[in-house]
Amino acid sequence: MKVAYANAFYHAEAFTGRNVHVKQFIDNATARGHEVWTWPRDEYPGAKHLPWQRIARYSKLREMDLIYVRLEDDAPYELRFATAPYRQLAAAKLIVWEFNVPPEYGTVNGRSPEQIATSIRDFKRYGRGCDLAVCVSDALADYARTRIGLKRVVTVTNGSDPDMFRPDVPPVRRVPRCPDRLNVVWIGSADIGYHNFDLLRETASRLCELGEGQRIQFHIIGKGLRRLRDMPANVAYHGPEDYEAMPAWLTAMDVGLCLYHPGPSGFGSPLKLFDYMSSGLAVVSNHQQQVSQIFQQLGQDDLLFDFGDSAALASILVRLASDRQRVRSLGRAARQLVIDRYNWRRAVDETFSAITELQPALQQRNS
Which of 166, 198, 245, 276 has the most CB atoms less than 10 A away? Predict the structure, then answer.
């Protein structure tokens, strides 16, 4: 297929989930023989680029089999290709939207209620011409159906790359490793408002009070942590790192954390979860719909805790620190599940399978 991949911003130096997802979609799609064309402003070198000149761009779009629009909380210009006259100008045979978060996610980025309401209206308006919505979680699929009114919706969860994130990658030397220390890591963008760093701080302080501060050490990797001075001595902040360097950081760790506030986080498909799993880490998380589903598959429900419950999180970490054999066993099971299912190859295959299944019905509709 020839795919026009819209709103797929990629920046080589960015430490974001968007970058990871865009790269993996393009790499895996092209590896399967598809052509992926991005708008000329988008930088990923693995894609072909549509012309800058508008007439030439529309001419090239007419060669595409589908326009695939990546969506986050706002409504991008490219939604217009779902309706007249833009759909006719591009001769768009198929319009597919990929939902990664709902518009309400904008609250963590400072968007006003009015801006969020406008995005919802735009999604509804242009959604009449959306042929298929690909959603990264069941919660988001339900949202697309009930809130936006889309008819054809499929869930395709995110994943990791088990060839990149492997337990045998040599670990970074900056993190001491020893049998009597549990290294606990959180990775991501600390400036995103739904991450609960108060919970991390409270848990680390509680462990220090219990005399566990030396045995259980926390490591934060990513941009945006502004108040390190508020963290106790058993928390280390390593700053942002290139995504390609993350496997070496994760192999220096034993446990990965997913810590959220309730709200928009419930719609997500956390990339950190799958990278932790692929690296062979045990994972501990508060209840979040997709994380909870995966923990049920692994039989690891006892590693889930309620939002904001620092006592429960501390208790889980103490148990893990006292049973290193179980930590290793949990990590092996998690990695195997990534190899078997939660990987980017499967995600892209499921996406194109859903598109292929839809084509006969659309051809009959348009005949």
Answer: 276
174-200 per-position pLDDT tens digit: 998 988 999 999 998 777 778 898 999
**pLDDT tens, residue by residue, 65-102:** 999 999 999 999 999 999 999 999 999 999 999 999 99
The rounded percent of the chain whose pLDDT value lies above 90 is 82
How high is the pLDDT of residue 224? 72
pLDDT of residue 367 exceeding 60: no
CA pair distance 85, 83, nearest whole angstrom: 6
Quote the pLDDT of residue 357.
Answer: 92
Spatial separation of the C-alpha atoms in residues 280 and 256, rounded to whole Å: 10
Residue carrying structure tokens 């950081």: 249
Instruction: Please check whether the two domains, 2-159+344-366 and 182-340, share a CATH topology.
Output: yes
Amino acid found at 207: L
Distance, CA of 84 to CA of 92 (rounded, Å): 10
Q: For residue 132, list its beta bridge partners.
A: 96
C-alpha distances in Å from residue 84, one per residue of 79, 80, 128, 174, 359: 11, 8, 11, 56, 20
Phi, psi (rounded to 5 degrees) for 67: -110, 120
Full-model pTM:
0.94
DSSP β-bridge partners for residue 258:
285
CATH code given to domain 2-159+344-366: 3.40.50.2000
> CA nearest 162: which of 340, 21, 350, 30?
340
Task: Provide the CA 349 distance to its chain's centre, in angstroms.
Answer: 17
Domain map (residue ranges) of the chain: 2-159+344-366, 182-340
In tens, the pLDDT along 107-124 reads 888 899 999 999 999 999
What is the H or E stretch that residue 3 is in? strand 2-6
